[in-house]
Amino acid sequence: MRYLHTERTTLETLMPGLDAALAEHPLTELERAPSPAIAHFRAAGGPALLVPVRDGGSGATPLQAVRAQRAVGARCPSLAVATTMHHFSVAGLVRAAQDGTGMETPLLETIATGRLLLASGFAEGNTGQNILRPHITARPVDGRMVLNGRKAPCSLSRSMDLLTASVAVTDGKGAPRLAIALIPAGTPGLEIRPFWRTPVLAGAESDEVVLTDVALDPDMVVVTEVTADAVPDAVNIAGFLWFELLLTAGYLGIVSALVERVLDHRDGPGEDPAPYLVDTDAAMLAVEAVARAMDTEEWTDTLLVHALAARYAAQDAIARTAHACLTALGGMAFIGSPDCGYLASAASALTHHPPARRRMARPLRDYLDGRPLRIG
């Protein structure tokens, strides 16, 4: 079948053998914790996807990356969600390397050659919490940066080699500034606690990470220009662009797995595939349009607004398509296998990731009125 052929071909080019390896497992096995999918991702070189070729990585373009992520989502929803967090953390390091401390380049090389996994401890998961105002704090003490706080949920928490976390740097001399901390998994004071209670997307390993007096070299804390006004700087705009596009592509892949099941089971030359294909393919084309623009345009808040528009359009497309697919598959498919109901539930979770549409209503209105984009 030609459906998802482009995406799976792209995935095979960038992560040879991953699609075939995932296809050998039943969905229920891939989606539990611990999931065999994470080991397959490492073995296929997935951690290096966005690491530049000069640093030993795959150097995927934005267009290649979103296509690959859709293919991953169609095989293993949990892996798509978890690896989005890894990829956008790597992308942030790539951007920070342009004017950073110099430690980013050897770290990127280590991620690529060692196939290291990065967990993302950014400020999401709390209703009403601004995602540029983290719960983790950092303060200078005797030449070290001491971190305290927690992040839940935190994907890849059990398999990570390195935690990347947004932290509020306080020194008692002004407003806290947003920084990105890089914390090796074995650092004293870092603890993983159970958190995820639902079986949906359990394979993403989204548990709680607790930091208690974690002491880091100051070079492992990259301070940004973001303060309490929540206006993202260049590093954060880059991170949000990658996050929104990869996340949306992954969730479109999840609902595409439902579409694929409909196409596999609906017979007859007169059957119209449009109710199952049009919405999701149109949403994916919007994602791809922004991905292409990332190769040709400056990464500004205007491009980020376009990425958010693609993401929110995808949420609506996923809801319509999942309903249409479940109706088409009928009650016997629901009774005979947990896969269809599971995929529909997993695909709907895109709405729970930041920034929520309702929290962005006023910032988007302000942006249209000529003010800088704030992230709600």
UniProtKB/TrEMBL annotation:
Gene3D superfamilies in alphabetical order: Acyl-CoA dehydrogenase/oxidase, N-terminal domain, Butyryl-CoA Dehydrogenase, subunit A, domain 2
Keyword annotations: FAD, Flavoprotein, Oxidoreductase
InterPro entries linked to this entry: Acyl-CoA_Oxase/DH_mid-dom_sf, AcylCo_DH-like_C, AcylCoA_DH/ox_N_sf, AcylCoA_DH/oxidase_NM_dom_sf
Annotated TM spans: none
Coiled coil, from the record: none
Superkingdom of origin organism: Bacteria
GO molecular function: acyl-CoA dehydrogenase activity; flavin adenine dinucleotide binding
KW DNA-binding (keyword) present: no
Protein name stated in the entry: Acyl-CoA dehydrogenase
